[in-house]
Amino acid sequence: MAATKRTASPKMTLGYVSEPGSKYNHSNDRTLQALKQEAFWFGIVIQSNATTAMNYAYNTGNSSYDPTGSIHLIYEEGRNALTINNSAYPKILSFMNDFVLKFTKQKQNYIRIANAGNSAALERQVETPIPVGFTVFNTAPYIPSTAEAATEIGTMYLIIISFVSVLMPSVKA
Q1: How many other CB atoms sit within 10 Å of the CB of residue 50?
Q2: Could you tell me which residue ranges the DUF3533 domain spans (predicted)?
Q3: What is the DSSP letter of 69?
Q4: CB of 21 within 8 A of CB of 48?
Q5: Which of 18, 21, 68, 127 satisfies CB 3.0 to 4.6 Å to 133 for a cystine?
């Protein structure tokens, strides 16, 4: 029940929210713009032709089919690199890998049963063993500047000097 309540008002929770592609006019550019405007932390964007391309590859043997083009995982590491790298990214990557594994098993099993006795179809199935994959796009990577280390060291020296000057007894002349 609590999960249902949180899903009903997603602005009050950190979690997964499924939104229709029509919200972004089925456009990757609009989705990226929403990411830049911090509408979400991570976006799992399923391309509009993903199912059609996958089924075409299995039905006709499209050798140029690239399953990693079906789903895009987009995020901005530069927004908060520490939180993203330590908390969010490992979980979302685990979720995506788990999804690909489960979907692959389900799709391969369905095709195997549907094409029992059809050697040409089973051969195409072998040519495309993974029906779907994902590509990760970090649209704002966190790259520390060269001066950052020197600035941090300078700040530490300043703190030490301030601390020592406060603790030193006042000297009377």
Answers
A1: 16
A2: 19-167
A3: G
A4: yes
A5: 68
At residue 170 the predicted structure's pLDDT band, cuts being 50, 70 and 90, is low
Provide mean pLDDT across the span 125-132.
86
The region that residue 66 occupies, defined by phi over 0 for left and psi between -120 and 50 for alpha, beta otherwise, is beta
By percentage, how much of the chain surpasses pLDDT 70?
87
From the list 27, 57, 59, the residue with the least C-alpha distance to 43 is 27
Rounded CA-CA distance 46/52 in Å is 12
The type of residue at 51 is: T
Q: Left, alpha or beta for 68 (phi > 0: left; psi -120 to 50: alpha)?
A: alpha
What's the per-residue H, E or C state across 87-118?
HHHHHHHHHHHHHHHHHHHHHHHHHHHHCCCC
Query: What is residue 74's three-state secondary structure?
Result: strand
Task: For residue 125, count other CB atoms closer than 10 A to its CB.
Answer: 20
Contact in structure between 152 and 90 (CB atoms under 8 Å): no
> Is the separation of the CB atoms in 65 and 125 below 8 Å?
no
- Cα 99–chain centre separation: 13
CA 16 – CA 19 distance, rounded (Å): 10
Please check the confidence at residue 1 and state whether its pLDDT lies above 50. no
Rg (CA), the chain: 25
